[in-house]
Design a protein that fits this description.
InterPro entries: cNMP-bd_dom (IPR000595), cNMP-bd_dom_sf (IPR018490), Env_Response_Regulators (IPR050397), HTH_CRP (IPR012318), RmlC-like_jellyroll (IPR014710), WH_DNA-bd_sf (IPR036390). A four-stranded antiparallel β-sheet has the order 1-8-3-6. It has a four-stranded antiparallel β-sheet with strand order 2-7-4-5. It starts with a helix and ends with a strand. By secondary structure, the protein is α+β, with helices and mostly antiparallel strands. It contains seven helices and eleven strands. It is globular, with a radius of gyration of 18 Å.
Length: about 200
């Protein structure tokens, strides 16, 4: 998101985050801007019963957890390393100063936050109103749009577990639903990899 040279010039610090480590937890006060240099981070909520609901996954070049930096509220979810990762960290006040000094970057963040609001609204609609197959296809099609992919075959880069986490479904339900979607010609499964199929 923010060019590495720019991060360095504003004093950002690069640090390692081992797999399974929490970067911050739900309810923590936001004090830094975070951007993935390498690896993968997930934002998630956890119920009292221990059930996890994933808000999103973030990989190289992507930032996460920005909304609280602009507001007066604490983190609404937790950030956990899905794999060994390296993260850029920039102090909140310096991050806000950077945006004030760079209109193009500020506008880019506005676009990103708008897309995430759209995704949240889509998630709520899908979970409250639609069956598992529809939830899964909607998620896959959203990911395709995010990648600006126009091919007739789109490779789904999520595991069955990650699809389950993002749609509020059980893994077993995802597996059954993907097989049903395959029988309907909406997806193909090759060597365990799911591909979304589109007509010419």
């Amino acid at each position: 998101m923010i060019p590495i040279d720019t991060l360095k010039s504003y004093g950002a610090h690069l640090f390692s985050l081992p797999k399974g480590t929490f970067l911050f937890k739900e309810g923590n006060k936001p004090v830094f801007y975070y951007q993935v240099h390498h690896g993968k981070i997930k934002m998630a909520n956890h119920s009292k019963e221990g059930k996890e609901f994933v808000q999103g996954f973030f990989s190289s070049g992507e930032s996460f957890g920005e909304p609280p930096l602009f507001g007066t509220f604490n983190y609404p979810g937790s950030a956990i390393a899905v794999e060994d990762s390296k993260i850029w960290r920039l102090e909140k006040n310096i991050f806000l100063e950077l945006l004030k000094n760079d209109f193009e970057l500020h506008y880019a963040f506005t676009q990103i936050l708008a897309k995430r609001l759209f995704y949240k609204a889509m998630q709520l609609r899908e979970i409250s109103s639609h069956d598992p197959e529809h939830r899964i296809i909607t998620l896959i099609d959203y990911l395709r749009i995010q990648e600006n992919n126009v091919n007739t075959r789109f490779r789904v880069k999520l595991t069955r577990q990650q699809i389950a986490d993002l749609t509020g479904l059980r893994v077993e339900t995802v597996i059954r639903s993907v097989k049903k979607l395959e029988s309907k010609g909406k997806v193909a499964i090759e060597n365990g990899i799911v591909f979304r199929l589109f007509s010419q």
